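Inputs:
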Amino acid sequence: MELLHGLLPHIVNGFALGVLFALIALGFTLIVGVMEVINLAHGSLFALGAYIALVVISPDPDILGAFADSYFSLPLVVRYALALLVAPLLVAAVGFGLEICLRRTYGKKKEYGLLLTFGAALVIEETIRLFWGPAEQSLQIPAQISGAFIAGDMIYSNYRVFAALFGICAIAVVWLFLDRTPYGSIIKAGAHDSEMVQALGINLPRLRLLVFGFGAGLAALAGIILTPIWGLRPHVGVDAVIPAFLIIVLGGIGSFWGAVAGGILVGLAVGITGAYATDWSILSMYLLLILVLTFRARGLFGKKTVLEQ
Amino acid sequence: MLTAKGKASLVPRQMLVFFVILFSFPFWSQSVGLYDYIGIEIAIWIIYGLGYNLLLGYTGLPSFGHGAFLGIGAYGYGLAHLNLGSGVWTGLIIAIAAASAAAALAACLLSHRRGIYFALLTIAIGQIFWFVSIKWHSLTGGEDGLLNILRPELNLGVTSISLKSNVALYYLVAILLAVVVLLLWRFLHSPFGSVIQTIRMNETRARFLGYRVWLIKWTVFTLSGAFAGLAGGLFCMTQESAYPDIMSLHASGLIVMMVLVGGGFVSFWGPVIGVVVFFMARDLLGSITETWLLWYGLLFMAVMVFEPEGVAGMWDRLTRRFFGQFPPAPDTKRSTQEELST
Amino acid sequence: MLKNLTRLLLAASTAAGLASTAVSQDKPIVIGITSDASGQYANSGASDRRGMLMEIEEFNAKGGVLGRKIETIHIDTETTPATGSRVAERLVSRDKVGFLVGAVSSGVANAISQVAQKHGVIYLNTNSSSPTESGKNCHRVKFVWDGNGTNFSQAAVKSSVDSFGKEWLLLTNDYVWGHNTSAATRKLAEANGAKIVDEILVPQGTRDFSAILLKAQQIDPNVIAAAIGGDDQKAMRTQVADLGLGEKYAWLNNQQDWPDIYGLPKENLFGVFGTTWYYNLDLPGVSDFVKRYQAMYPDTSMKVPGNVFYNGYWATRSLLEAIEKAGTTNNHAVIKELEQLKIPADVRMQHHDAYMNAKTHQMQQTIYLAKANLKGEEDDMFTIVTNTSPEDAVDAGAEQTCKLESFEETPVYEP
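Outputs:
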């Protein structure tokens, strides 16, 4: 009983962490699942979203000029909400650009898309460094969602609760998009047989563009939510994209709920080893991946996809 | 388009040109603003790149964790030097053996896979090795590095040459590189070389043709690990130390970019060109601007979008346009645009 | 006839002497700056470099060193040891620099040191705070200018046991620096009557500290001594502040580099941490120094300088002054001069005199402990709590583990 009492906070924490991991993986899995492109630039888009949010929340007063005073008098909550809206849209635009670059690689082997987005990740990260510098920055969060509460004898973070709830809502919205709207199935079909889909009169290229933008926007959203916890610096994207890639393979490429389950599993692994075998906590997700893939070659809920060629 | 076996000459034109440039480098390096040390580094990375391209360009397996084997080779050599007092040859053999063993082990997990799964697993394996090298600092020296690996004496029986000077070391590395080039050239123009390309083009078909695909992939991975080990051992000898950094994800990603920009997908010489372009870009651009990596990343993206055949592919098309319709030499061009689509 | 011959020889030798001094007066002294401009330590590297350049400019304004102008070449070491080796080799063999200055990462410093020692080029490790730099990995040509993890532990631990309590938790970043620092803390704490209740090893690359912080709460110690560095420290700081745990326990952090925390919310600076210098010290020369910085660098985001800038400045200044004092750039002579370096407190802008330890080549200096200054103006982030003399903060183990190469083993180099 004593053990369980000690273990319980870590299980809850691991679960909450898992929701955050699933949120990170969300945009990634959308693009993989419906466009079957591995977007390694996901992490850099994650970082870019956070940096743009930084600009929205606390812009350089010189740029605003006359508006500076009135803008800063807006409460932080308003500016934060504005950032949550504006940053993903701007990053979605960057996503559009990336999708256009990717078009040439669609007919070819999947590695080309992977490699191209790998290059894009580097370019975006270096651009961030160029504009914002290498220093650590801080993303302010509104007082309403910061601070801590006490449960049992332990202090927990309000913000993590907010972030986990936000993650759950985001997951629900994306699932609805994929499952309950016609767009998801159209684009899935397009990945397999684009000629037929276009013959049916659907503007496939435009739809692909929009989905990629959506995925990029989700990456940005995850960035705004996670960087107040994990810190904001140009390299933070890599901390996001590797777990995201790992999670969708673990959960099974092509499976939405696989990605969610994968995220939660990784969160629990990292959270529990973080308490009892801390020096292995980072490695635990890699070991978990190897373990799962050894016994289930396609991941937990994997289906056969175009990506296997 | 498979290479016709037996038809490639032992030492084709390009190889001769390469050898001339390679062996004459110390004589003209100063006049173009270069220095011997960078020549050594480039030669070592070419060994690494050629071995890596066995996997990526020829067999079509994208490994993003290959830095692990470079690092294991480096630590292997370093530890042999410090604990066993090994000289040049013993040290390098231990480096190659250690890296091959690690690659063989990794290949057991990887050889079932290809494409995306393969790529992700190589990332995981690379991270695991990197992590161990930092954590096991009593063995590796951790982030401080494994240090004081003094340059050895090259014992040739009748005489002994000190490798302390960069020029002497350069020639050792150049000779080893020449051997690697000759070996790989023969190897890739043998039946085995054709088979691995079949696997790249269509693994299922290769299996239906009766090839033992798992075993072949395992062998190629282990071999590319062996070359990485040789490069790593030489690097440790050059730098007189070994650090975990070359095993990091960032460093592993660099070799991928280098090989692709050079045209590893279509040409044996792709890695050579790619390594040279990268080092020149870094040394020359880097002294002008701090954002050289941004420009290199953009170059890489441009190559992937417009010219996946890389520099070697562009060169091939240019020479054919200017010098008429020479049939592509069976040695240089391996795949065509049609083949690059699935 | 002999008299004429003598006169001729005298004239010839004088002419030759004049010619050679004329040549050496024209030939500048080139300093190779090996600081990071990209990678994890880019920000600190830039600050380091600014310190060096300000000092060089001040010297050049006085006519250079030994009448020779000082020039610099900077190449980015990318926080990567392999790049460090290549940069050092290039600077020495191609650009023929006289001296090498600059480091933040210990791996890069070691890579450069080996090349420097091989050629006999004096190398100043300005800002790497790894205890091994002046211990296991010391070199005859290398001089270390920063306080290391052990110095800070020495300064912090004893008084903390008395003030805060005997139950200690160690958070150790799982790499060499973390282990060395925690080992020093452990030894001292136990010697002063504390009990190390637990030690949590935090792997490098940890971003999420929630499990660790929950565990720390379950352990409920009096003091948490954190040997966490780099980006991990930045993530931990945000999360500890978020939970308000900085108030609940007495936190002992190690050295905080000014570039890493400048501009961050002061609430994130919890506990007690160390530094070698602070811009708002009430000592002679400090405010003038700060004004010179602001005049030379009006456009940087850091409006006031910190310890990294200070170490870069002082390392360079001590080198140039040593060359002047030795009267030559001969490396053996300059090394001997540096080994006897003593700088009085008022010149050094610290509370105690500073001096070079000839056996380990580490500059012994005042160690400050600070905590966050929540009340002052924006830049005034620290409140200095104590200052410890170099004798009290000494890294006792260094002399045993450091084996400097002899002068015979070190090649002569006279740029």
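Remarks. The longest helix of chain B spans residues 213-239. Chain B touches chain C through 35 residues (CB under 8 Å).
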